[in-house]
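Hi Q.,

Before the meeting this afternoon, I wanted you to have the zinc ion prediction in hand. No need to reply - just skim if you have a minute. The sequence and ligand are here:
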Amino acid sequence: MAFGSRPAGSGKHRGSSRLSKKTAGYAGIAAIATTGVVGSLAAPAFAADNHSSNIGMDNGLGAVVVADELAGDISEQADAQHRAAEHAAAKAQAEADAKQKAAEAKRLAEAKAKAEREAAERAAREEERKRLNTFVAPVDGSYVSTQYHAGGGMWSSGSHTGIDFHAASGTSVHAVGVGTVVEAGWGGAYGNNVVIKHNDGTYTQYGHMTSLNVSVGQQVTPGQQIGLSGSTGNSSGPHLHFEARTGSQYGSDIDPIAYLRSHGVEL
Ligand SMILES: [Zn+2]
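Predicted structure with the ligand bound:
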């Protein structure tokens, strides 16, 4: 090592204790320094400093400078290690951020899918609500063959309590609106008949049918088939007798055309 080049007996003891302390420190540092950089820098640095002692500077200062430069190298290593640690931390943070971002994107996608599902369900419910609130004619593509309150000996009351829809025997008869079947069976002059109570408290009646498809207590929806038309009971021929009523019993009839029109049915 270059320490041996210090001139012997220089008589300058002032800095000796400091030098030995620094040298010891240097030796300790050198012992743990493993890179070639430290060793190669140390010798010229000391040599240059040793040269400066020829112009009267304290030799101890040279060791201090070398130690300081070595300390600077160690510091650079420490800085590099610190930067590497910072880089690793930044990388870990970036990975954590990316993970969090992905989780957030997943959460948003799921929320969006849920919102879309709920919107579709709402639309379906609304569609169903509309369908259930819609009224239809009891026979498709038909027409009124006998008007409400038409006179004649045919009717016990002296006038027609409903309207007749033209319908060949076996034509599908529909519930005009959502409701509950309160009568289904033989109705005397009405033949095989069905009475439905609707949600607004009104009733509709369907008479002279050949066969019935519903029974008392059954819920029906608009357009649902409740039977097939015919000419049972007091009937002059196949048709559908249709009544609208404010109550379930005979005599509470109201104008069926006005009733159906008020529920949006075009006749
Ligand atoms: Zn009739």
